Known about the structure:
Layout: H1 2-10, E1 23-32, E2 45-46, E3 52-57, E4 60-65, E5 76-84, E6 87-96, E7 101-103, E8 122-129, E9 133-137, E10 141-147
Antiparallel strand pairs: 1-2, 1-3, 1-10, 3-4, 4-5, 5-6, 6-7, 6-8, 8-9, 9-10
Amino acid sequence: MAFVVMFALTACEKTPVNGALDGMWQLMEVSEKSLAAESGWAQAKSTKGEGIYWNFQLDLLVIHSQHQPLNGYTFDTATRFRHEGGRLELTEMYVHYDNRDSLILDPATTIFEPLYIRSNRASYSVEKLTSKQLILCSEYNRLVFRKF
């Protein structure tokens, strides 16, 4: 009987396929690339009050902005991603509307800039990934997240 109860309690759990990356992360600060700064990054700007959250599950990343609607309409975007070898690649970015998701094909789009993403695709090196902190670096900026 105990075996049946234990099996019933654990049967519905999903194993995280992305390790420590899985789950919800809050964007805490952003630094822009700077040739003048010794570290290569300008002084970090706090983004805690902007309410930007990245939620990783399986091969889907959902990004939510509490205060800044994308394109003046929606607060959510979704993207497929690959995480391997110290790299995180965002591909196939979609803007979520009430009745559909719209794939953004234009590489020159500025729609994701409120989320600190400069195109319809993004590539990051994973500087740090623990169960509590994630630091991503692109050619434009450095994003610091805390596990939420």
